Amino acid sequence: MPLFGTSRRTALLVAAVAGVTVAAGVALAGTAEAAGTLGASAAQSGRYFGAAIAAGKLGDATYTGILNREFNAVTPENEMKWDATEPSQGRFTYTNGDRILNQGISMGAKVRGHALLWYQQEPGWAQSMSGTALRSAMMNHVTQVATHYQGKIYAWDVVNEAFADGGSGARRDSNLQRTGNDWIEAAFRAARAADPNAKLCYNDYNTDGVNAKSTGVYNMVRDFKSRGVPIDCVGFQSHLGTGLPGDYQSNLQRFADLGVDVQITELDVAQGGNQANIYAGVTRACMAVSRCTGITVWGIRDSDSWRTGENPLLFDNSGNKKAAYTSVLNALNAGGGTTSPSPSTSTPPVPTGACSATVSLNSWNGGFVATVRVTAGSAGVNGWAVGLTLPSGSAVTSTWSATNSGSTGTVSFRNVDYNGTLAAGAATEFGFQGTGTGPTATPTCSAGS
Ligand code: G3I
Prior knowledge:
This protein starts with 12 loop residues before the first helix and ends with a strand. It has 12 helices and 19 strands. 29% of the residues lie in helices and 24% in strands. With 449 residues, it is α/β, with parallel strands linked by helices. It has an 8-stranded parallel barrel, surrounded by 5 helices. A 4-stranded antiparallel beta sheet has the order 10-11-18-14. Bound molecules: ligand G3I. Residues 2, 77-78, 120-121, 160, 205, 237, 266, 306 line the site of ligand G3I.
C-alpha cells in the first residue's frame, strides 16, 4: 500500500472552495489553440492524458461518457495484474484485460499495461513459491502476458514498486526479490523478447521528488542503461497528499537525462486546499520535460477512486468537472515543449574495425535472453552481420530486430531493413531468446548484408 510523500488530510469544504477560486484565475498563455478536452489538449504537444479504468464499470454510461470524451490513454486498474491474468499456474485468463484493451482500441487510445510483476496481487500459488521455481514462473508470466498483448500495448509497467520506503534507497524485500537481485533486469529482457515494440517501464510511488527512494531507482536505471538492459521509461505514480515536492520537475528531468521517457502513471491528489494547484503543478512539470510523454489519473470520478473519502480525482461523484479539471486543462493548453527524445548522455567509443558487437545475457534455469548491441566503426556501415557460437545443446528459439541463419552452434545474425545503416559510432540492438545456456565468447561483427 503506497505511503505518501506529503501528509494526507481529509477534505475541507472551505479548502475545496478555495481550489475553485485558484483554478478560475489560471490564464491561458499558450500559442496553440485551446483544446476542450484533456486528451485533445495533451495531444497538441504529442502527449497523452489517460485514466485507469475498471472493466466492471464499462457499462456505466456516465463513466464511459467521460472516458470516451476526455481521455486518449487507458490503464487497467486491476485487470492485467498477475492474480487476474494467471489465477492458477499456467492457466491464463485475459477476459477482463481484453475488455480494457478493446475499450482503448475503440477510443483510438494508447493502452498502458499494468503490471507484469508486482509483489502485491500475486496469485496465491505464486505467493507460496520461492527460488528457481518462482523465478521460472515469473519469467513465464512476463513472457506469456506480454506475448498475448504483443503489438497492442504502448507501454508496460514491467516491474512495479520494487524499492523500499524510507531512507535506504534499497530494494524492497519480497519473494520476487529473494529470487536474486537480477530479477528486474530479467523481467525487462523477457518483456522485450515478447513484445519488442512496447515501451518498458519501471513504476513506483513516493519517487515524486529527489529522495533516497527515487535515487535508488535512478541508480538502477542508470546501471540498466549503461549495461544495455532494455528499459525505456520510468513511471512516477504521484499519489499525492496536500503538497507537491518542490523538485518534482527536476526529478523528472534527471531521469529523462538518463535517456528514458518519464510518465506520470497514477496521479491523484487529496482534496485539500491545494488540489487544483497541485494538479496544475504536476501538469506543468510534465509539459516542461520534453521526455515526459503523458499523464494518467488513477480513476475517473471521485467515487471510482481507491482513496475512499479523499475525493482525489478530476470529476465529482456525479461526473461533473471539478476545479482540478479546469486547472489541468489550462496547464495543458498553456503548452510546453513537445515530446522529442533527447540524445543519450553516454557516448560509447567508436570501434576501430567495421563494427563491433557486445552481448548481455539474462539466463535462468533452461533458458536465456541475449541482447546484442552492434556499434558501427569510424566509416559507418550499410548492413552488418554478427556471429555468435552457442554451447552444445543450446538453441535459438526466437529473434527480434535481426534475422538468423542457423539456430545451433555458430549462428549468424543479420540486420533487418530498418537497422542496417549506422553512422560512425552509432549503435543498434537486437536480441534473441534461446533454450539451454547463452553464448559466452565475444561475438564477431562484419560490415555488409
Ligand atoms: O474484485 C474483488 C471482489 O470480487 C471482492 O468482492 C472484493 C472484496 O474485497 O475485492 C475485489 O477486488 C479488489 C480490487 O481492488 C477490485 O476492486 C481487491 O480486494 C483490492 O485489493 C483491489 O485494490 C486495488 C489495489 O491496487 C490492490 O493493491 C485497487 O483497486 C487499485 O486501484 C490499486 O492500484 C494500485 C496500483 O496497481 C499500483 N500502485 C498503487 C495503486 C493504489 O494502491
